[in-house]
Amino acid sequence: MASMSHSSIALGGASASASDYLRSSANGVTGVSLRALGRRTMVTATTRSSNNLYVTSRLKKGKKFDHPWPANPDPNVKGGVLSYLSEFKPLGNAQKPVTLDFERPLVELEKKIVDVRKMAEETGLDFTEQIITLETKYRQALKDLYTHLTPIQRVNIARHPNRPTFLDHIHNITDKFMELHGDRAGYDDPAIVTGIGTIDGKRYMFIGHQKGRNTKENIMRNFGMPTPHGYRKALRMMYYADHHGFPIVTFIDTPGAYADLKSEEKGQGEAIANNLRTMFGLKVPILSIVIGEGGSGGALAIGCANKMLMLENAVFYVASPEACAAILWQTSKAAPEAAEKLRITSKELVNLNVADGIIPEPLGGAHADPSWTSQQIKIAINENMNEFGKMSGEELLKHRMAKYRKIGVFIEGEPVEPEKKINMKRRDAVASTSRNLEGEVEKLREQILKAKEASPESEVELSSEVLNEMIEKLKSDIDEEYTKAAKAMGLEERLAATREEFSKANAEEHLMHPVLIERIEKLKEEFNARLSEAPNYESVKAKLDMLKDFSRAKAASEAASVKKEINKRFQEAVERPEVREKVEAVKAEVASSGASSFEELSDELKEKVLKTKREVEAEMAVVLKSMGLELEAVKPNLKEVVAESPNENIQEKLEKLNREINEKIEEVVRTPEIKSMVELLKVETAKASRMPDQGSQKIEALEMQIKQKIADALSMSGLQEKQEELEKELAAARELAGEESDESVKDDDDEDGSGSGRSEIINPSFA
């Protein structure tokens, strides 16, 4: 390949010094300057002659470097022209909205507002009042929700995918910012970002965890989990800031340090420990701000500051709620309870002196208004740095040491209150109690079986006593289980607030507000729907089944006892001489008449039979009244009538109609209108029990309204016609003394003697 004469550097003989070869052509050495070489295209060729050795070189052609800034950059761009070098670029597309589980009611309201506005645009009608009402309701719901957040809900907000990151806040609060890279050991961890920036003309060293705004960025940033190289980069910048006197501001937002094998091999623990030791010796102010979640040592490695501030919905913990729940309860479903026990929210940490202040967030979280949140952070930085600016280096060190020395209180030599004692074997005690309860249940079941076989009176009474005791134990245990489940689901605060409102409304004279009734119903539905997610669901289910079985057994036992007592007293009443003589005399007259049916008797004898029947019914009424019961009417046993009827399908029709009636009643009772009326009736009944002279008219009016509503619903369902048809079929089979019964078609009593157990409202008559 031919050489270019002006691009070669002639090397002299072997006696030439190295400095001669580095001189430029301006000093008289053959060749061209290095600056000129850089602008020429060169080729490589070697030729050998007898006197001189010539060496030439050629630069390799490559693609022209594509600079990250535009051709004509704006010199006044925020952060300077070099900000174009930053990897943190504005997102091309807006982030997709993400709705958390507890925010779904708000989304429904938003959808309603959008639908009404769309309807107004399409129809041209004026829906201004409806839109204003919905917007007011939405704002109130948003305020109620975000002012009563549970710890696990704050954790979810702190982890929100659209929550502003460290660099989002930096670009909002700084006048200029220059990112600094590298740990000077060959690595640059993108999970920790460092740089120098100015706020109102004052220079600061900013260090913070950086999460991604989308999946691609999260992978690049390792989801905000630093490796040892990131902590060593932060350490280098701390030394730099300490040397030049720059205050340090750190932003914490990490689930924890990256805990893979390679990070451990590179010295993850040593890097964190070195940062902790160094930060306690820096003589410049250090301010830490938790903007998201601060997990374990990964957060503490840049968090040993003179003050630590937290955003309102940020969390700071030694272990995540999910990890804590998995360790203590062997299931991550107990994370809500773990979040409450860990006390990781900003308010709780300020009370514990771990955090020193709370930076407010807008309703809806920081992602609802990132710019406003950043300005609140800027205000907090300026206020605290003005305070630190009055301290010397030694005073800052003492201030930092005092902050951590005051965390935690130790009391020695004083007795501990019983309620504050911690039972280290509580789980064993709970398991033992559960086993004891199961043993008592099995023992009681055996007693019930024996009582059913032998059924002596003494054993039945003993079983009733034991049943009552066992039911009370089960109710107490179920209440505790429900409390645990509510805590695990994060519903404890809402449940307590609703209970307090209910008690307050119950204590006052006025009726309960329908909004409160609706809120109670929604809370019940949410609790029942989410109960299966609770870690103690299986225990709750088993105890509820046991309670149901024993309640049925108790009801059956009580019904049998009442029935036996009624029969005993009725027999005593009938065996009285005057009654017995009348009955025997009527029987003798009927027998001597030779009639085979009631219709064949003479009118006089019929009147005697009916009169005797009424006297017996009167005796029965007296017996029932003495037991606190009331006799409404004496009605025939339709099952016996059906059994004697030649029509074999009547029994099946009777049962089918009874099922349809019960299903319809259940459907009506579940409607919001009837529910609210029943709740009002309960409240009025409770008030009347305290003040018997008041409220009786309201109770009667409510009862009549409820019965009328149910009767109207049943009459409109077509069941009345079915009943009338069935009564016509039964009329031919009735061979009863007296007038025909207008009995509504229903079961005489349940097989277990406990009643329907489905509703507190009596089935109304169709008549």
Automatic annotation (TrEMBL):
Domain CoA carboxyltransferase C-terminal, residue spans: 133-387
InterPro entries on file: Acetyl_CoA_COase_a_su, ClpP/crotonase-like_dom_sf, COA_CT_C
Pathway in which this enzyme or protein is active: Lipid metabolism; malonyl-CoA biosynthesis; malonyl-CoA from acetyl-CoA: step 1/1
Reaction equations catalysed: N(6)-carboxybiotinyl-L-lysyl-[protein] + acetyl-CoA = N(6)-biotinyl-L-lysyl-[protein] + malonyl-CoA
EC number(s) given by UniProt: 2.1.3.15
Pfam families: ACCA (PF03255)
Class of this enzyme: transferase
PROSITE patterns noted in UniProt: COA_CT_CTER (PS50989)
SUPFAM superfamilies given in the database record: ClpP/crotonase
Residues of the signal peptide: none
Biased composition (Basic and acidic residues): 721-732
Stretches with biased composition (Acidic residues): 738-753
Coiled-coil region list: 427-454
Keyword terms: ATP-binding, Coiled coil, Fatty acid biosynthesis, Fatty acid metabolism, Lipid biosynthesis, Lipid metabolism, Nucleotide-binding, Transferase
Entry superkingdom: Eukaryota
Protein name: acetyl-CoA carboxytransferase
